[in-house]
Amino acid sequence: MLVPMSKVNIVGHRQSLDGTLTALHRAKRVQVIDVTDDIGVRLPPLTIDEEHLRSIEDLRYLRARLDALLHLLPEMTTHTSEGISDVDLEDLRAEVDAAAPEIEELLGHLDDLKRETEALPRHLESLRRLLPLLPDMTGLESYETTALLVDARHATVLGELNQHLTTELEGNFEMVSDRVDPRTIGAVVIYPKHASQAVHRRLGHEQVSRVRLPKQYETMSFRQALVAMEQRLAELPAAIEKAEDAVTDFVRAHPHWADARHAAVARLEQLGAIRSLGATPHTFVLSGWVPTENLGVLRTELEQSLGPAVLVYEAEIEAEEEPPVLLRNRAPARPFESFVKLLQIPRYGTLDPAMLLLIFLPLFFGMMLGDVVYGAIVLVVAWLLRRRFGPTGFAHDLVRVLVLSGAWATVWGVIYGEYLGDLGRRLFGLTPLWIDREQAIEPLLLFALAVGAVHITLGLLLGVWQAYQAKDRRRVGERIGMLIALIALFAIVGSATGMLPEATMNPAIAAAIVGLVLLIAAGGAMGLLMGPLEVMGTIGNVLSYLRIAAIGLASVYLARVANELGAAAPLWLGIIVAALFHALNLVLGVFSPTIQALRLHYVEFFGKFYESGGKAFRPFGADDTDSLRPTYQQ
Amino acid sequence: MEIGLIAIGAGLAVGLGAIATGFAQARIGAAGIGAIAENPELTGRVILLVAIPETLVILGFAVAAMLIILLGG
Q1: Is the ipTM of this complex over 0.85?
Q2: pTM of the predicted model as reported, rounded to 2 decimal places
Q3: What does the pLDDT look like over A294-331, one tens digit per residue?
Q4: Is B65–A344 a contact, with Cβ atoms under 8 angstroms apart?
Q5: Domain limits at B40?
Q6: H-helix or E-strand containing B51?
Q7: Alpha-carbon gap: B1 to the closest alpha carbon of chain A (Å)
Q8: Structural domain for A376, as ranges
Q9: Interface of A with B (CB under 8 A)
Q10: Cα–chain-centroid distance for residue A121?
């Protein structure tokens, strides 16, 4: 159902403005109406004084600073949304400015350590592969060593390098190379230190990449570097733990930062609302929407926190005004609200179709899937998944809808006598309670049409009721005309096919004419053209319910194919093939009926009564639950 | 022979309806995904729009079923 809304005017002395905004923000009960959009209150908007402007600037700076720091720190928990007073705002700003370099250094150090942990094993691997090629350098202090790793596909480059170095160093060097793994050739060049520049230049020319060690190991020999790196790698976990402890200690020393950011955001929202208020020389007027059931509580809360300085009046809702929409349904229908919102929420004062979706959506799903085993699998999987998702959200709601849908699919499976298609009948002789979809196609099609006729008729009845509530006589006439014409057409078809007595034909034709005339008359100038077209459209809507039979038949035949293929192959292979086909059928059988059942509601059923276009109720302060991650939006 | 012709007629009724639905859904789907990328709130309406042309193949199915049931004996 849609929660009834009241419009309130909250009037107070300007001295009570901050207190009122804080109280309303905390109460989260009122959606503020911008005074420039308010038809009822014709006042100029309140201007923000210098003091408040300064506060806004300070708070924005503080929020940006805290956002940047909190983004770097491990997540902090918020405890309160109490406001920040202007006194501690200064202190907080100074504290944040002073502490920022410290935490940036701590986090920088931690990052360096983590990078080192990732980089060292790569260097160690290269060194370990090259180690067998490295000579003992004792007594060769005046010589330098350079190690190379070359892709085995480009091995010829080493020969070319050898030739060039022989010419340039007149043979005063040593080069050894060997395959260090199937894809890589390792090479080590030993040369006098004075020839270092020439060797490096040549390596650059040949575009051979040498094994480079991190800066702190560059002056060591490869063997020394290997030992030092292994030692450093062993020390790193303790160093990282220490650095992380330092960050944690910092977070613990500043527990109020997350709360402060939270409060800064809340206060900014409060100050931002000032421009939406109306002003007289000494007072402010805040207009807003509040659920009627909360009106008394709101009055009491404001009286308790602000005394008689602020008054709450219930205002008249003008005809042009449309209150915001708050959906509230009983627990079983609540998951279906997501499917209502998926389309667009209803306008205020119209029907909330969540309860109707609860009744019909899983029912239609069950009619289409209609298999005991498939239904049980959907039911069990959805039941097991239902705690996986958070307390709200589309996935949470979808899983709950699938639990009901699976249950209905199981029930319809018993009615159709389907247990993994015809496997139940083949193995255990299980028979349908009512119709065998595979054989009785005609009754199945008629059943689908009957479901459509009932559903569309219900939609039209709801449409008549809704138009009557809205005192829209034209629409009442249109929908009653359509209803009469549709029922009369059913009677004509029933009489023509012998399902109804022949005597019903003439009254049915008369009723169809009456309905059509009513529809045309209510439609005004375009009624003559649109009336018959709308009747055709509605018949098309009823025919559209044939998809309940069509989707079901597709599922039945795919299940049968799975069983036939399974039976044709040897036992184990047959079971695997059948299981794969049944799994495919189940995936299609969950996806397709969900979409089709939704479509039948959105297009065929809702088209008869549903009025979308409502605006969701957003109480002042309700967005105050933002995460600590920065938004950078304001 | 007659049964064969009825079967071909039924197949054409569903098949041509399915091709028409496919064409329509391809265009609506492509435009719809673009619209969702711009504004995710349109998801519900896009699903609805994509599902609308399916009526063509359902009506084809209805014609095929009538051919088989009424003429196929």
Answers
A1: no
A2: 0.73
A3: 999 999 999 988 888 899 999 988 888 899 999 999 99
A4: no
A5: 2-68
A6: helix B43-51
A7: 23
A8: 331-429+440-608
A9: 341-344, 441-442, 445, 540, 543-544, 546-547, 550, 595-596, 598-599, 602-603
A10: 39
